[in-house]
Amino acid sequence: MPERFIGRPLTPEPGSCFGAPVAIGAPALPAVFAWNHERIEVAELLAAWKESGPCRGGSSERYLRKHWFHIRTSGGREMKLYFERQPRTGQKNRWHLYSIL
């Protein structure tokens, strides 16, 4: 089945944590999320990586923008999630479901 783009916010369950953060300064991956009236439990972390981008103020510096996670759920689905380090103006949720594989 091809990767299906979702692009919707996730709500982490308070107090849930799947293992330790993958790197110093990285967000801890919550063990449970709510999405689309569904409870998603993380069963396995398959991969983690970071995304950086140029400074929005015009300097030549690069900044860490997102932490990405490729997970397998307790139901067997694979998903790609990301955590936005600096959410856009007016946006409250920093966790997002990018796609279902």
Summarize the structure.
The chain is mainly β and 101 residues long.
Overview of the molecule:
- This protein is an all-beta fold and 101 residues long.
- It has one domain.
- The chain has strands spanning 4-9, 11-12, 32-35, 38-54, 62-73, 78-84, 95-100.
- Strands 1-7-6-5-4-3-2 form a 7-stranded antiparallel beta sheet, with no helix packed on it.
- It is globular, with a radius of gyration of 14 Å.
- The N and C termini lie close together (7 Å).
- Biggest β-sheet: count, sense, barrel? 7 strands, antiparallel
Number of strands: 7
Q: What coarse outline follows from CA principal-axis ratios?
A: globular
N- to C-terminal separation? Answer: 7 Å
The succession of helices and strands, N to C, reads EEEEEEE
Mean of the pLDDT scores?
A: 89
Which structural class matches the secondary elements?
Answer: mainly beta
Question: What share of the residues lie within helices?
Answer: under 10%
Tally of helical segments: 0
Structural domains: how many: 1
Instruction: Determine the strand fraction and express it as a percent band.
Output: over 45%
